[in-house]
Amino acid sequence: MGEFDLIARYFTRPARRNALGVGDDCALLQPGPGMQLAVSTDLLVEGRHFLSTVDPRRLGHKSLAVNLSDLAACGAEPLAFTLALALPAVDEAWLAGFAAGMFALADAHGCELVGGDTTRGPLAINITVFGEVPSGDALLRSGAQPGDDLWVSGTLGDARLALEALRGTVSLPEAVFAAARRRLEEPQPRVALGRALRGVASAAIDISDGLLGDLGHVLQRSAVGASVDAEAAAALLAARTQMALPPEQVNALVLAGGDDYELAFTAPSRLRGAVEAAARASATPVTRIGRIEAEPGLRVLDARGQPLAQRFPGFDHFA
Amino acid sequence: MGEFDLIARYFTRPARRNALGVGDDCALLQPGPGMQLAVSTDLLVEGRHFLSTVDPRRLGHKSLAVNLSDLAACGAEPLAFTLALALPAVDEAWLAGFAAGMFALADAHGCELVGGDTTRGPLAINITVFGEVPSGDALLRSGAQPGDDLWVSGTLGDARLALEALRGTVSLPEAVFAAARRRLEEPQPRVALGRALRGVASAAIDISDGLLGDLGHVLQRSAVGASVDAEAAAALLAARTQMALPPEQVNALVLAGGDDYELAFTAPSRLRGAVEAAARASATPVTRIGRIEAEPGLRVLDARGQPLAQRFPGFDHFA
Questions:
Q1: What is the 3-state secondary structure (H, E, C) of B192-229?
Q2: How confident is the model at residue B223 (pLDDT cuts 50, 70, 90)?
Q3: Which residue range or ranges hold the PurM-like C-terminal domain (chains A, B) (predicted)?
């Protein structure tokens, strides 16, 4: 199968919102009046971001999900995306699965594939996603203020737990592994929550690289510090309800595990009711796990308010 | 050097047109009133699109140039781009050269880096570019009409000639090789010509995959056929002025060589003067090499108007 046949068979669908579908030199997009276009791009490489054994349907889902998660962190509404795909060979079963997973999530968010590029090469997937957000309303990393609450959506650490099980460093009961693996391979981007937090959250970020590392970006951009309640964070490991794990391991998973496509966000404490309303409106659980402080730095505190002795290396693709 | 240091050192510059520079979850873009956003994405993989020995500065240039060429083919004005980079290792000399070449071309076109992603992996470069074009004015592949002239910009075939020399299948005098290699490694996207052709050209395409193959997309989209004057095309091989090459080889280079980031476009013959004015205004040579016909199919004709016996396989990344 040639490149153009491949695009025609797996990646061409009728154009909708976009003026031009896949196939011209450019796609044409037009944000609505008063709207800004939010753009993000994520590159996924085999062995680094996913294992060669991953179900292609889940990989298709995740490739788009990690990008939608960036839109969520800005409070943007998904609009469209481009897909660049390097494939070692044309494997039709793989392509059909990948496309099915990707388009199922795209359809769930009304997000249209508008262009792309395919080539032969070591498996790599690059999606660039476009969303729209009312001008000036995007959630940024730079707005956190001393006194703000620190919140996080959903659960934490289960994706990394599944990764460790796949690597063989931990052994999990079957049901725990299946649930954790779903968190790793089919993350649900928090688009509805991000949108609902416009005008409520003072800053937001997607914590794909681990809570502490990504929170660090917010603190740096906002020129503030924070304290994090380790016990409140540890309670967010879903697997804990089904099995016992050493406390240090739980801390490492929830605070620095990575691959949690959840939102960490800050909001003035007088807006707690509004945060809870946004969570209800988007059917997304949120938990308060700390607060923003004027003193620079990130303090992880135990149940007695004492600094945790444990250290958490940040997650870095080149470390 | 970690991922964030790498981004800070090589890819972070002050934000200009874009509301947010590199570093938030999303970049924010706003096309002007009445403008559409034109989007294109190209993925370059080592061994497929460039050799490992290429000068990183030229590779940085080319990685952006191939994307700007897609904007040119739509008549769009460059605005911004995102860069996703998979690197086998952090090589500072390589990164400095790559960034210098990329930013030099970006600055020449007022095109701003607004976001990206870096990871470790087999060398792959994916740029997604954004341009703006007045709503409804984009040059498309679908507008060619029977009777239109077929034009091409610049010269043809020299990039492929350089590639063949690098592969060792042809031997070139040093000066010819240097000039041809520049065409291969530092193509100049025809942005000014594309813009000048708005309202003049009836269809346009960027002929990166070879003239005949890419022209085929225009014919298919426009539901027309075309005849191409092989002699007029052959005259566009710049190397011909400096050395003799077998006619069949010249034909293969100019008609199906690939990697020519020139525009092929069509225009009504009554607009020849306007095409020539657009060429002058953009300081870009253009040559009439054929015409659009109602009869489907692509006919390559010799100097006597007879079909050429020579066959030209299309260029396809999976063929």
A1: HHHHHCCCCCCEEEECCCCHHHHHHHHHHHHCCEEEEE
A2: very high
A3: 145-300
Cβ under 8 Å to B: A residues 51-70: 70
Contact between chains at A26 and B221 (C-beta distance less than 8 A): no
Taking residues A227-240, what's their average pLDDT? 95
Of B76, B84, B114, the CB nearest to A126: B84
Nearest Cα residue to A17 out of A28, A3, A25 = A28
Please tell me if the domain spanning A3-134 has the same topology as the one spanning A149-301: no
Pairing of strands A225-229, A124-134: unpaired
Q: How many CB pairs under 8 A join A and B?
A: 236
Q: Is A3 on the interface with B (CB under 8 A)?
A: yes
Domain ranges of chain A: 3-134, 149-301
Mutation target for A interface from B41, B127, B220, B261: give the one with most A CBs within 10 A: B41
Q: Do A38 and B26 lie within an 8 Å CB cutoff? A: yes
**Looking at beta carbons, which residues of chain A come within 8 Å of B116?**
41
Each residue's pLDDT tens digit, B85-121? 999 888 889 999 999 999 999 999 999 998 888 888 8
Chain A 167-226, residues with CB within 8 Å of chain B CB atoms? 204-206, 217, 221
CA distance A152 to chain B (A): 16
Neighbours of A88 (CB within 10 A): 11
E strand or H helix at B155, and its extent? Answer: none
- Cβ–Cβ of B40/A115 closer than 8 Å? yes
Cβ(A194)–Cβ(A71) under 8 Å? yes
Question: Model's pTM, two decimal places?
Answer: 0.88
Quick one: closest CA in A to B4, which residue? A316
Return the closest-CA partner of residue B144 out of B218, B227, B214, B70: B218
Contact B126 A25 (CB under 8 A): no
- pLDDT at position B313 is 66
Spatial separation of the C-alpha atoms in residues B262 and B187, rounded to whole Å: 9
| Residue B46 DSSP symbol | B
Alpha carbon distance A26, A10 (integer Å): 19
Asked if residues A68 and A111 have their Cβ atoms less than 8 Å apart, the reply is: yes
Cβ contact (<8 Å) for A124 and B90?
A: no
User: Topology of B3-134 in CATH?
Assistant: 60s Ribosomal Protein L30; Chain: A; (3.30.1330)
Q: Which of residues 255 through 284 in chain B touch A, CB cutoff 8 A?
A: none
pLDDT one-digit tens code per residue, A108-127: 999 999 888 888 889 999 99
ipTM: 0.83
- What class is the A149-301 domain? alpha beta
